[in-house]
Write a structure and sequence with these properties.
Elements (H helix, E strand, L loop, with lengths): L12 H26 L18 H19 L8 E7 L3 E2 L6 E8 L5 E4 L5 E7 L2 E5 L11 E4 L5 E2 L3 E2 L22 E9 L2 E2 L4 E5 L1
């Protein structure tokens, strides 16, 4: 028979039972302390360190795409002179008395690869002449000229915003004074243009009445 269940000795049986209960209580306390040391109260082993949190895949893709687009813009080669075709445009072929011509230009990438060109007002010029007489130039009194980098895809021409010519002569010295009007009555004029350091092809002819 096990001595744990039926203690024997010279003392009363109750004395031995109390001693064994004290020993068991001590063992339980030791085990409890060990458990508390190994597993801290309130800890959650399922909680991840915030540094391990990953960016959602859609946001990561968006960021990568944005970075790629910026790199593409930065790496886009400038258009070569022979890669662009610039064409002058007037909104009409003849203008009635007092009617102001609206002048613009068309730029087309005639190459095989996309390229970047400065198509801001700082890189454009419009000039009107009659015969050998150049009567007006947009750069003479231009203000707040700006540069604007534009990517041109092959075979997709772009047209500039139109500017009105007031039918007067211009020069750098006439910007702050009343300028003389040009001749009309069916007089013929030619528009020449340039953009991105490329001279326009031919002229746009129109008549003033």
């Amino acid at each position: 028979m096990s001595t744990l269940k039926d203690p024997v000795g010279p003392k009363d049986r109750k004395v031995y039972m109390r001693r064994r209960l004290l020993v068991l209580a001590g063992l339980v306390a030791v085990i409890a302390v060990v458990v508390l040391v190994i597993v801290k109260p309130g800890s959650d082993t399922s909680v991840r360190d915030v540094r391990e949190v990953e960016v959602p895949s859609d946001l990561a893709s968006s960021s990568t795409s944005s970075d790629s687009e910026e790199e593409s813009d930065d790496e886009m080669p400038a258009c070569a002179a022979g890669q662009l075709r610039v064409t002058p445009i007037s909104d009409k072929s003849d203008y009635a008395a007092g009617e102001l011509p609206l002048l613009s230009l068309n730029v087309e990438n005639v190459g095989k690869e996309a390229c970047a060109a400065d198509l801001g007002t700082a890189g454009m010029e419009f000039a009107v002449s009659s015969g050998d007489d150049q009567v007006w130039r947009s750069a003479d009194c231009q203000e707040n000229a700006e540069s604007l980098a534009v990517i041109l895809e092959p075979g997709k021409p772009l047209e500039s915003e139109g500017i009105q010519w007031d039918r007067t002569r211009s020069s750098p010295e006439t910007c702050d004074i009343t300028r003389d009007p040009v001749g009309a009555g069916g007089a013929s004029y030619h528009l020449r243009v340039s953009a991105a350091e490329v001279e326009g092809t031919g002229t746009a002819q129109f008549l003033l009445y």
